[in-house]
Specification:
Strand content: 15-25%
Radius of gyration: 15 Å
Strand order of the largest sheet: 3-2-1-4-5-8
Structural class: alpha/beta
Order of helices and strands: EHEEHEHEEEHEH
Distance between the termini: 16 Å
Shape: globular
Number of helices: 5
Number of strands: 8
Protein backbone atom coordinates (compact mmCIF):
# COMPACT_ATOMS: atom_id res chain seq x y z
CA UNK A 1 0.00 0.00 0.00
CA UNK A 2 1.51 3.33 -1.05
CA UNK A 3 1.77 5.65 1.94
CA UNK A 4 2.55 9.33 2.45
CA UNK A 5 3.60 11.01 5.68
CA UNK A 6 1.46 14.06 6.41
CA UNK A 7 3.01 16.57 8.81
CA UNK A 8 0.45 19.16 9.87
CA UNK A 9 1.32 22.65 11.16
CA UNK A 10 4.68 22.01 12.80
CA UNK A 11 5.32 25.74 12.90
CA UNK A 12 7.24 28.06 15.19
CA UNK A 13 4.22 29.63 16.91
CA UNK A 14 3.43 26.25 18.51
CA UNK A 15 6.81 26.05 20.26
CA UNK A 16 8.08 27.84 23.40
CA UNK A 17 8.24 31.56 22.73
CA UNK A 18 5.61 31.31 20.00
CA UNK A 19 2.20 32.95 20.05
CA UNK A 20 0.31 29.68 20.70
CA UNK A 21 2.78 27.42 22.52
CA UNK A 22 1.55 23.86 22.97
CA UNK A 23 2.42 21.35 25.67
CA UNK A 24 5.57 19.37 24.77
CA UNK A 25 5.72 20.11 21.02
CA UNK A 26 9.42 19.22 21.06
CA UNK A 27 8.60 15.60 21.98
CA UNK A 28 6.19 15.33 19.05
CA UNK A 29 8.81 16.85 16.74
CA UNK A 30 11.38 14.23 17.81
CA UNK A 31 8.94 11.48 16.79
CA UNK A 32 8.09 13.27 13.55
CA UNK A 33 11.81 13.41 12.74
CA UNK A 34 12.05 9.63 13.23
CA UNK A 35 9.14 9.16 10.83
CA UNK A 36 10.71 11.57 8.33
CA UNK A 37 13.89 9.45 8.40
CA UNK A 38 11.89 6.31 7.56
CA UNK A 39 9.97 7.93 4.71
CA UNK A 40 13.10 9.57 3.28
CA UNK A 41 15.01 6.28 3.47
CA UNK A 42 12.18 4.44 1.71
CA UNK A 43 11.72 7.29 -0.79
CA UNK A 44 8.07 7.64 0.18
CA UNK A 45 6.39 11.06 -0.04
CA UNK A 46 6.31 13.50 2.85
CA UNK A 47 3.80 16.34 2.68
CA UNK A 48 4.17 19.35 4.95
CA UNK A 49 1.05 21.36 5.73
CA UNK A 50 1.57 25.01 6.66
CA UNK A 51 -1.30 26.98 8.15
CA UNK A 52 -1.25 30.66 7.20
CA UNK A 53 -3.68 33.27 8.47
CA UNK A 54 -4.07 36.12 5.98
CA UNK A 55 -5.70 38.52 8.45
CA UNK A 56 -3.56 41.50 9.44
CA UNK A 57 -4.75 40.90 13.03
CA UNK A 58 -3.94 37.16 13.11
CA UNK A 59 -3.50 35.83 16.63
CA UNK A 60 -0.84 33.37 15.37
CA UNK A 61 0.49 32.00 12.04
CA UNK A 62 0.26 35.50 10.57
CA UNK A 63 1.33 35.72 6.94
CA UNK A 64 5.01 36.57 6.61
CA UNK A 65 5.78 36.09 10.32
CA UNK A 66 8.52 33.96 11.84
CA UNK A 67 5.85 32.15 13.84
CA UNK A 68 4.16 30.92 10.66
CA UNK A 69 7.35 29.33 9.33
CA UNK A 70 7.81 25.55 9.43
CA UNK A 71 10.05 24.52 12.33
CA UNK A 72 13.75 24.47 11.40
CA UNK A 73 14.26 20.92 12.74
CA UNK A 74 11.93 19.47 10.12
CA UNK A 75 13.75 17.74 7.27
CA UNK A 76 12.02 19.62 4.46
CA UNK A 77 14.01 21.23 1.65
CA UNK A 78 13.42 23.09 -1.61
CA UNK A 79 12.12 19.87 -3.22
CA UNK A 80 9.62 19.09 -0.45
CA UNK A 81 5.88 19.22 -0.96
CA UNK A 82 4.55 22.08 1.14
CA UNK A 83 0.83 22.83 1.00
CA UNK A 84 -0.54 26.04 2.46
CA UNK A 85 -3.91 25.94 4.18
CA UNK A 86 -6.20 28.45 5.84
CA UNK A 87 -8.63 26.16 7.72
CA UNK A 88 -8.22 23.26 10.19
CA UNK A 89 -9.04 20.60 7.57
CA UNK A 90 -5.91 20.20 5.43
CA UNK A 91 -8.05 19.14 2.47
CA UNK A 92 -10.38 22.15 2.50
CA UNK A 93 -9.57 24.62 -0.29
CA UNK A 94 -6.04 23.21 -0.77
CA UNK A 95 -4.19 21.08 -3.30
CA UNK A 96 -3.78 18.15 -0.89
CA UNK A 97 -6.29 15.82 -2.52
CA UNK A 98 -4.88 16.49 -5.99
CA UNK A 99 -1.34 15.91 -4.73
CA UNK A 100 -2.30 12.59 -3.15
CA UNK A 101 -4.04 11.48 -6.33
CA UNK A 102 -1.05 12.43 -8.47
CA UNK A 103 1.26 10.49 -6.12
CA UNK A 104 -1.17 7.52 -6.15
CA UNK A 105 -1.31 7.49 -2.34
CA UNK A 106 -3.57 4.91 -0.73
CA UNK A 107 -2.87 5.56 2.95
CA UNK A 108 -1.98 8.63 5.01
CA UNK A 109 0.25 8.51 8.07
CA UNK A 110 -0.81 11.61 10.00
CA UNK A 111 1.26 13.62 12.49
CA UNK A 112 1.38 17.20 13.67
CA UNK A 113 -0.34 19.86 15.65
CA UNK A 114 -2.90 20.50 17.22
CA UNK A 115 -4.43 17.10 17.92
CA UNK A 116 -7.82 18.56 18.86
CA UNK A 117 -8.11 20.81 15.79
CA UNK A 118 -6.19 20.25 12.57
CA UNK A 119 -5.12 16.64 13.19
CA UNK A 120 -8.69 15.73 14.15
CA UNK A 121 -10.32 17.55 11.23
CA UNK A 122 -7.83 16.27 8.65
CA UNK A 123 -8.00 12.66 9.92
CA UNK A 124 -11.78 12.58 9.67
CA UNK A 125 -11.66 14.02 6.15
CA UNK A 126 -8.94 11.53 5.13
CA UNK A 127 -11.13 8.66 6.28
CA UNK A 128 -14.14 10.00 4.38
CA UNK A 129 -11.96 10.25 1.25
CA UNK A 130 -10.81 6.62 1.61
CA UNK A 131 -7.20 7.17 2.73
CA UNK A 132 -7.26 4.63 5.62
CA UNK A 133 -5.41 7.00 7.97
CA UNK A 134 -2.95 6.04 10.65
CA UNK A 135 -2.47 8.68 13.34
CA UNK A 136 0.85 8.50 15.14
CA UNK A 137 -0.27 9.48 18.64
CA UNK A 138 3.09 10.50 20.11
CA UNK A 139 3.92 12.52 16.98
CA UNK A 140 1.09 14.94 17.75
CA UNK A 141 0.71 17.71 20.32
CA UNK A 142 -2.06 19.82 21.77
CA UNK A 143 -2.64 22.31 24.58
CA UNK A 144 -4.67 22.83 27.72
CA UNK A 145 -8.24 23.89 26.99
CA UNK A 146 -10.89 25.62 29.05
CA UNK A 147 -14.64 25.13 29.00
CA UNK A 148 -17.21 26.71 31.29
CA UNK A 149 -14.53 27.83 33.69
CA UNK A 150 -12.95 24.39 33.94
CA UNK A 151 -9.48 23.61 32.63
CA UNK A 152 -8.88 20.43 30.66
CA UNK A 153 -5.21 19.40 30.67
CA UNK A 154 -3.39 18.78 27.41
CA UNK A 155 -2.99 15.15 28.45
CA UNK A 156 -6.76 14.79 28.86
CA UNK A 157 -7.40 16.60 25.56
CA UNK A 158 -4.91 14.29 23.82
CA UNK A 159 -6.47 11.13 25.26
CA UNK A 160 -10.01 12.29 24.49
CA UNK A 161 -9.35 13.19 20.88
CA UNK A 162 -7.20 10.19 20.09
CA UNK A 163 -9.77 7.87 21.65
CA UNK A 164 -12.48 9.45 19.47
CA UNK A 165 -10.27 9.23 16.37
CA UNK A 166 -10.09 5.43 16.80
CA UNK A 167 -13.39 5.44 14.92
CA UNK A 168 -11.71 7.04 11.90
CA UNK A 169 -8.09 5.85 11.96
CA UNK A 170 -5.62 3.38 13.34
CA UNK A 171 -3.89 4.99 16.32
CA UNK A 172 -0.28 3.90 16.78
CA UNK A 173 2.86 4.97 18.61
CA UNK A 174 5.96 5.83 16.61
CA UNK A 175 7.90 2.76 17.78
CA UNK A 176 5.03 0.46 16.78
CA UNK A 177 4.73 2.03 13.33
CA UNK A 178 8.50 1.94 12.72
CA UNK A 179 8.89 -1.75 13.69
Amino acid sequence: MRQALLIIDVQNDYFPGGKMALVNPELALEKINQLEDKFLQEQQPIIYIQHIKNSPNADFFGIGTEGAQLHSKLKNNEHSIVIEKHFPNSFYETQLLESLQKLEIEQLVITGMMTHMCVDSTTRAARELGYQPIVIADATATKNLEFQGKEVSAQQVQISFLSALQNFAQIQATHTFLW
